[in-house]
Amino acid sequence: MEDSQKKQIPLRLSPKLYAQLQAWADDDFRSVNGQIEYLLSECVRQRKKNGKYVSDEIDKPPEIDIS
Fold first, then answer.
1. SS3 26
2. From the centroid of its chain, how far is CA 62?
């Protein structure tokens, strides 16, 4: 699909999530839409690379054993 033919979809986000995405997008000099597209592209690329999802539960921090 070419850039001029991007699919538009409605997306509902909580105000808290939107604010977090806005801050992240500002840090990366992107629009919120650009940040969402970037993050989704990275997740798809990572899944293609290793066949795994980033996390089964998005709000749950990863369990890391640092001891």
1. helix
2. 16
Q: Round to whole Å and give the CA distance between 8 and 40.
A: 14
Global pTM exceeds 0.70: no
**Distance from C-alpha of 24 to C-alpha of 20, rounded to nearest angstrom:** 6
Tokens of residue 37, six digits:
């597209």
Predicted confidence (pLDDT) at residue 64 exceeds the cutoff of 80: no
**pLDDT, tens digit, for every residue of 24-52?**
999 999 999 999 999 998 888 887 777 76
Q: Where are the domains of the chain?
A: 14-50
